[in-house]
Amino acid sequence: MKIAVVGTGYVGLVTGTCLSESGHHVTCVDVDEKKIATLREGGIPIYEPGLEELVRRNARERRLAFTTSLAAAMRDTEVVFIAVGTPPGETGEADLTHVLTAAEQVGRAIERYTVVVNKSTVPVGSCERVREVVARSARAEFDVVSNPEFLKEGSAVDDFMRPDRVVVGVASERARQVMADLYQPFVRTEQPILFMDPRSAELTKYAANAMLATRISFMNDVAALCERLGCDVDQVRRGMGSDRRIGYPFLFPGVGFGGSCFPKDVRAVMTMARQLGLDFDLLRAVERVNERQKRLLFDKAVKHFGALAGKRCALWGLAFKPKTDDMREAPALTLAQLLAGAGAEVVAHDPVAAEVARPLLGPHVRLAGEPYAAAEGADALFLVTEWNEFRAPDYERLGQIMRGKVLFDGRNVWDAARARAAGFTYFGVGRPAA
Ligand code: UDX
């Protein structure tokens, strides 16, 4: 098939590249000339494991191309994906400006039957709005379908290649067949394509993200209970997750959820509900718990040290989660700002996100090129993002180079017993005190 993808952000670039990998001819379009130039040279504008090799190979084998001209990309195209950004608008609901602009341009370029696929996360009813906009100028028949994306940053390629499911909201049989053919290489009996009406597909994405965010805030509250009751949240989590109705994933307490999706989607669902006269109180609590959780390590540090002025604090990890350089709503930003605001000296290291983080952290936070260089002379070390290289630290070495011996493990990845045996005061999240 010949496919065009509008928008080369996370979703668009992964979608286009993975579809070309399955043999389709894909042209990715973006208004950002610099981005397109980088992609044409075989570089990628984001950090995503495995993606760069796929881009290069498929470009070399002429199944994947990049352009700034939407009209050129859409010549003879059967399917066009709209995968442009939907930042939160003033009310908290997703801003559809980019989506509708793309829809308008797509409409002008349609000259044969085309399936227009909405990949961006959009409010319920957007499919219909896109259809109206495309209809103004399309010169041939078309269908608009909703196909929300569930990929996770850091494992986006794998998530696309082996999805748990593909959700397609579609009203026409013809478009349904096109989408079935398109996704055939990626689905299995247990990981099916779920066809449904477009509005339900649009809500599915929001509801899934809001549910996952709820699980995390729930566990962060369970962790707070554990700390007060002297329980171990790791054990409680295992005990809960083994119930098949609950399951293990997304039950890890930590420093709060961040990223481009959960915070924004939780707010979007609340806004949607409010506009309909409903109160989604549960999500208000999810958000409140998350705000508290982003302060958790700071509050623990204040409790331990009293005043933080003059204390040197080392941060391991800045990105909102490992395997990405994404700093959007990263809990590390809150922590660094609170520490610096209290007069502490903050030195941070992140294996990938340092450059993206630098302008966001401000002048009071120093960056170190290496984890132990960040810890040098520190009174306390904070683990914020659980990158693999931080999981098994050399406690002896840390003991020698740090000024104080205090560890705040925001992800419960360190061995508390070993850390304590090496002379450290250890604080986790929902783990028992020594
Ligand atoms: C999420 C959804 O998982 C994905 O389906 C959707 O398409 C986009 O949003 P992503 O933002 O890439 O993906 O990250 P994810 O791995 O889901 O993690 C989100 C946040 O939750 C991170 O800050 C992470 O640290 C936190 N988290 C996750 C926890 O605190 N505990 C957990 O158990 C899991």
TrEMBL record:
Pathway assignment: Nucleotide-sugar biosynthesis; UDP-alpha-D-glucuronate biosynthesis; UDP-alpha-D-glucuronate from UDP-alpha-D-glucose: step 1/1
GO molecular function: NAD binding; UDP-glucose 6-dehydrogenase activity
Domain of life: Bacteria
Residues of the active site: C261 (nucleophile)
Family annotation (Pfam families): UDPG_MGDP_dh (PF00984), UDPG_MGDP_dh_C (PF03720), UDPG_MGDP_dh_N (PF03721)
The UDP-glucose/GDP-mannose dehydrogenase C-terminal domain, residue ranges: 314-416
Xref: SMART domains: UDPG_MGDP_dh_C
InterPro entries listed in its UniProt record: 6-PGluconate_DH-like_C_sf, NAD(P)-bd_dom_sf, UDP-Glc/GDP-Man, UDP-Glc/GDP-Man_DH_C, UDP-Glc/GDP-Man_DH_C_sf, UDP-Glc/GDP-Man_DH_dimer, UDP-Glc/GDP-Man_DH_N, UDPglc_DH_bac
Purpose of the protein: Catalyzes the conversion of UDP-glucose into UDP-glucuronate, one of the precursors of teichuronic acid.
Family per similarity comment: Belongs to the UDP-glucose/GDP-mannose dehydrogenase family.
Descriptive protein name: UDP-glucose 6-dehydrogenase
Lineage: Bacteria, Pseudomonadati, Myxococcota, Myxococcia, Myxococcales
